[in-house]
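Annex B, item 7. Sequence and structure tokens for protein A, then protein B.
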Amino acid sequence: MNRTVSVVRLHLVNIREVAGVPWMVTAGAFAIILMIAGAMRWAGIDDTPYNGAISSLMVSTGVVLAMAATQRFALAIGLGFGRSVYLAGTALLAVGISVAFGAIVWLLSLIERATDGWWLGAPFFRPAILPDSEAATLLCMVAVMLLSTTLGLFLGALYRRWRAPGLYVLSLTVLLLSGLSVAVITRWEAWSAVGQWFAETPRLVLLGAVPAGCALLAMLASVAVLRHAEP
């Protein structure tokens, strides 16, 4: 357990990269949204439509975890950490970041709701699709952040194992499967059924259980790939 914690400490040596970069990007996106909302209020428009800018935090956090899988893997192995210990420590880091960042976003969403969108009617941290229950909202935010971190780990592991060709093959596979799915749904005229499923599925399942399940799969895939990657 001590060596697993040591791996986490190794990742956190450059805390400004791990925690600072994602929030710096998010702060920039937040500032832009507030300026747009202020300009709209000045023009007599009361509410700013939600635009999904909080995804900047998820994307940048995923990039940070991808770098953890690529840049510090060789260092950890060179320092004598076994692959299992490194994987356990990196997984612990991903979970810790997801819980911490999800909780921070949730707290900011409470302030956002109390101030009616930062006094400008500007939604940023709380999409309307989230559940009304605060506890359920917190779980969903943590689950979505966990999906972001584990996807970042998986992409980093894939690059570490097969370099750029691995990412090219993954991108091509995703594009092909997406195109095939669209073709099948269109052929069977099932778009209304797909929309109905999204509309009727409980939001806690759609934004909590589904991301958490996908995050588990991404984590297992990352472990499988990094076990055979060259340091």
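Protein B:
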Amino acid sequence: MNRRRILALAILPVLSASGAVSQPLPDVAAVKRASMAFYSALPVLDDGSAMQQVWANAPYVTYVGPQSKSVIVGWEAQKKYWNEFNKLFSQRSVSLVDDRVHVNGDLAWEIGVETGQAQMKDGTTRKVDWIVTNVYEKLGGQWLMVSHHVQPRPQ
């Protein structure tokens, strides 16, 4: 083997471990579309039907948010949570900024900052300023959310 080939074969595992090898761009774009679908569903204050389009219908999906008292596990528990949670709002606008997406096979994760505001039914307004981690799984060729975790951003 020539020296260049040996060097290339030696460097490839290091690049893969460091994340320097490029990710499949179609998958990154598809995950970003799934993310946009989630953030588009947030203002829809319904019984959870809008969320059902973006979440995997699986017993292992999880949600942890600033209003949840524990980890919510499973789609049925999620649907019940979103239905009750949505009743608190008269309007909600949330977007994701400073996001980063990483894809590894059929699993992807996204980190970023949720920003926006929520108009509560009691007339008060709350600022949305959370750090978020979203996890997606490719199921049946479609990227669906399997975990959503938000927490207040340190000030």
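Comment on protein B: The chain has four helices and six strands.
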